[in-house]
Sequence to fold (300 residues):
Amino acid sequence: MTSSPPALFDRALLRQRRNRAADSLPEYDFLLQRAVDDLLDRVESISRDFPRVLVLGGGGIVGRMLQARPEAAAKIGQLVETDLADRLAPDICLDEECLPFADEAFDLVLSPLSLHWANDLPGALIQINRALKSDGFFACAVIGGASLKELRQSLMAAETELCGGAAARISPFADTMDMAGLLQRAGFAMPVTDVDRVTVRYANAFALMRDLRMMGETSVLSDRPRQTPGKALFVRMAEIYAEQFADPDGKIRAGFDLVHAGGWAPHPDQPRPKRPGSATVRLADALGAKEVSAGEKAGG
Fold:
């Protein structure tokens, strides 16, 4: 009998912190708005309608932003918006890792900035695929890539200097290659990924940490240090941050990578890649180039 791996994230703590941020989130949702704008751009670019749409996370922001996006709104029928936190859930409070929906219940699933907290992201994606009708579309945005690398490096440097070692205090993030592989593993057809890199400037590191708290995006690592760090650690971290990542005007930079990923629930009529060796046209002919043999020096 094999035991499941330990959970990376404390989902109960995540729910608690998202509930705590429910009142402040509308004033600090600039990253969420940017992610949803991009998701709705993708919906508008698809030449079809979506009678039933599920939104995982976002605290109801998709419904609010659709009021100013008539082209996207015209494509969407019934909208079901959910969230892990009950204070943020417009329709249903649920855990993205345990979806309560029947197979093929939705035509479109959107997830703005929530799945980066999933312990079992492959399992969550498989469930999303099952919840989609054949040829249904899924699109998500997660905080990933090199997000918060400045904060991570400054914290590690400060803790190493003061304590002789550094604990994990910021979550690991998936990048575009990770997300593409996970979509394929979950059975999505024609997966695509890209990244929107955003730089935000703050007066100091404490202002950045305040924003993360107001967004409900502070670390919920299960293996986080349980002892509250002393003030000296954060003071030194802020000093290092300002020394290494400040602009000439004294403001610091914080980088966020919004990793977008999408794919289609399989359908027999979707395009399929040709089997290896089935090509009837040489690549050199298609490119209008001279083919060089392995024994011939290019340019010779």
